[in-house]
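Lab meeting, item 3. Inverse folding demo.
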């Protein structure tokens, strides 16, 4: 029987709806990954509603929970770690210490860092110290870095002038340490507005995926968290990076099609579950 990978997912959790672990855990389970959810916050709902109840996990709880898994002798079975939204650089450092501990227990474990910096139009912005921490500290330990365009711009300190420039900006991040950079959402002058584009760069390869652009009255939340989770999940299941990239794009598109068909603001993960596991569509990655 093939090994069922174990993935520690360090993200926010919402009671109602889907964001953070609330967007990533079920799809990961549905594709055959054992998820160890470590919830950095528990909120009633995602923050784009403008109001929520709940609490942030004290940063010292992150190493304590990881240490608890080590104490029962199971930490070496962790095959991968995803981290998402960080409340502070201190919380980020606690996560990196946990990742280092896991890599010591299992040197083959992979770390994907989703460098969440927020979306000005979604109203979610992180403190400047978090941006610096992500570039100066997290990128060095990450095997995969998954910025969106705004996060890529923030790392580069400028806006792109073209697709080739986006590639250059992503490749500049490779120098910081990750083996691959997945840009989850491209935006640059001259881009075809009918297409939604994602980019994957490694030391030797550059891949672009285009899929149809879907219009929403309000952009759903949690898509980035779903994207980064599925990508690492498929890598842990044995896909090469191109195959994981193509699978992720197709599965996320299936979720958005269902969400659009239901005229829902929240991602329709349960309704789309069979198509997450077995997307009907395939968007082939184009080599640049
Ligand atoms: N095919 C598509 N058409 C339109 N919007 C899309 C499509 N695929 C993803 N999106 C949107 O793009 C964003 C995903 O990219 P990203 O910038 O990583 O978002 P996030 O803020 O969720 O991290 C989400 O707002 C998502 O709703
Ligand atoms: C609690 C919570 N987690 C995660 C996110 C990130 O979601 P996304 O994947 O859209 O970046 C948000 C966005 O508002 C949020 O409120
Ligand atoms: Mg995001």
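The presenter then showed the designed sequence:
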């Amino acid at each position: 029987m093939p090994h069922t990978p174990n993935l520690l997912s360090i993200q926010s959790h919402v009671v109602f709806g889907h964001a953070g672990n609330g967007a990533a855990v079920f799809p990961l389970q549905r594709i055959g990954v054992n998820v160890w959810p470590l919830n950095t916050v528990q909120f009633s709902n995602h923050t784009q509603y403008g109001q929520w109840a709940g609490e942030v996990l004290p940063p010292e709880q992150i190493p304590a929970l990881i240490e608890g898994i080590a104490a029962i002798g199971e930490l070496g079975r962790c095959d991968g770690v995803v981290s998402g939204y960080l409340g502070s650089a201190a919380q980020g450092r606690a996560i990196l210490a946990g990742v280092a501990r896991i890599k010591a227990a299992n040197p083959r474990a992979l770390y994907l860092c989703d460098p969440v910096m927020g979306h000005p139009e979604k109203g979610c912005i992180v403190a400047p110290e978090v941006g610096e921490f992500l570039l100066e500290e997290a990128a060095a330990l990450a095997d995969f870095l998954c910025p969106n365009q705004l996060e890529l711009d923030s790392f580069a300190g400028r806006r792109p002038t073209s697709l080739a420039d986006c590639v250059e900006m992503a490749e500049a991040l490779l120098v910081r340490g990750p083996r691959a950079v997945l840009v989850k959402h491209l935006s640059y002058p001259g881009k075809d507005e009918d297409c939604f584009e994602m980019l994957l760069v490694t030391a030797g390869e550059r891949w672009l995926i285009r899929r149809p652009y879907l219009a929403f009255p309000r952009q759903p939340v949690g898509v980035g968290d779903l994207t980064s989770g599925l990508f690492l999940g498929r890598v842990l299941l044995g896909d090469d990076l191109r195959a994981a990239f193509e699978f992720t794009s197709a599965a996320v598109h299936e979720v958005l099609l269902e969400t659009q068909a239901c005229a829902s603001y929240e991602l329709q993960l349960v309704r789309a579950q069979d198509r997450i596991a077995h997307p009907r569509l395939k968007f082939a990655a184009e080599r640049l």
